[in-house]
Design a protein that fits this description.
- With 110 residues, the chain is α+β, with helices and mostly antiparallel strands.
- The chain has a domain of 62 residues.
- The protein has five helices and four strands.
- A hairpin with a 3-residue loop joins strand 1 and strand 2.
- The two termini are 19 Å apart.
Length: 110
């Protein structure tokens, strides 16, 4: 692992701690240097620079009211969660064109 500041290491650890929730919701993820988490669901991706923002985003999926008219699937990741359009990217727009790839950084897909 590269030498990172304490703050960066703490953010990376916090992102990695959210992996079980990402898997449970069927989302794929990549952790890029120094501490950015890309999350993809149904071909739509979001990038998070702060683990707390990702945690709040994941909580919005887990606390949805269920009724007879609501699907049992989590809401689509592309629905508005208060994120700006610049934070939403189609997977094909960034896949392979990021400054570093998962292979180069040694990260894995969820």
């Amino acid at each position: 692992m590269a030498d990172y500041s304490k703050d960066t290491n703490d953010r990376r650890k916090a992102f990695l701690a959210l992996r079980p929730q990402l898997r449970q919701l069927g989302m794929k993820y990549d952790l890029f240097d120094p501490a950015r988490m890309w999350v993809t669901k149904n071909g739509v991706s979001k990038v998070f620079y702060n683990p707390e923002d990702l945690r709040l985003f994941l909580d919005s999926f887990q606390h949805q009211p269920m009724d007879s008219t609501t699907s049992t699937r989590p809401q689509d990741i592309s629905e508005d969660h208060g994120y700006t359009p610049s934070q939403v990217r189609r997977e094909e727009e960034w896949n392979g064109t990021t400054p570093t790839t998962a292979l180069e950084t040694g990260t894995c897909r969820g």
